[in-house]
Amino acid sequence: MRRVLWGIAVIGIWMAVPGIACESTQYVDGYEWTFHRMDDGNRYHEIRNVGEYTEGSTLNLTAPCMGANVDTVQVDWEDNRSEVRGELVVMPGDKRLGVRDISGNNRASWAVQSNMNRFRIEFSGKRGHRCRIRFIRVFYGRNGQLGGVQGGQVQGQGINAGQNTVNLVDKITIQGGPVLRKARVMRWDGNQLHVVLREGNRQRNQALNPGQISNLIFADRWGKAVAKDGSRFPVRIHSMNGSMIDFDKRLNGNVVPKGTTDIHNFTSITFD
Predict the structure, then answer these.
(1) Hey, CA dihedral for 257, 261, 262, 266, is it positive or negative?
(2) Which of 10, 156, 158, 226 has its Cβ near the most Cβ atoms within 10 Å?
(3) Could you tell me the CA-to-CA distances from 164 to 155, 178, 183, 255, 260 in Å, in that order?
(4) Which of 22, 74, 18 is closest to 46 using CA atoms?
């Protein structure tokens, strides 16, 4: 009995301390982020073999420990001497941290030094030129606090306490699920819609295929879209049924209603 009580106490302490829970391998949006601690005390999460990208494409990622204070993001990439560049953009705030040139075999770093929920790398350069990402590391520093959201849930923060990580402003109906539950759409990655859902007194992340969505009503907010032809523009989505969205497009300062189209016509859409 004493051993059982001790085990329960250890589990309780683990769940109560988000920093401890985050110092482990995380599985987010299909990526395995392995946790590492360096001899100097610095800590980081790493993903490997992220894939190949060309100019005009965007790599969108959810941070392995959402809400944690990030010191640096480091990317190891190569482009076989072609001409590709990458810019890191972090959320919240949609902060652009500068363009890095991918010259042959290179390792680039960006100083973030703020809390980070999501980030993306936007690629530019000569059309058709490609680069390959070997790994991405998210460094927390020696004394960084790994709190916030981990494993798709709010750690140590309940909805009843009025401490939501994100404001759930959209309404979604999932096939076979409750009607119009509270949610917030974060991004479309070209294949899946990444949303935050309310679950009891917590929040969790979920990646949904369009076929899993019966109906989605968006709050009045703008996102940044990248079309298949590489063009970029602000969009405001009103609703989504299956893969079909009804949206507006901002063009030269004017809002142009575009009606209904398939969301697969976009390689990415990112919402604030």
Answers:
(1) negative
(2) 226
(3) 10, 21, 12, 32, 32
(4) 74
- Give the Cα separation of 127 and 121 in Å (integer): 17
Query: Which tokens go with 143?
Result: 């004394």
Element (H, E) at 9: helix 2-16
| Element of type H or E holding 157 | none
The stretch 132-157 carries a mean pLDDT of: 62
Nearest CA to 208 among 26, 27, 25, 30? 30
Average pLDDT of the chain?
Answer: 79
First to last CA, the chain: 50
Q: Could you report the per-residue pLDDT of 75-98, keeping only the tens digit for each?
A: 998 887 777 888 999 998 888 988
Instruction: Give residue 181's Cα distance to chain centre.
Output: 21
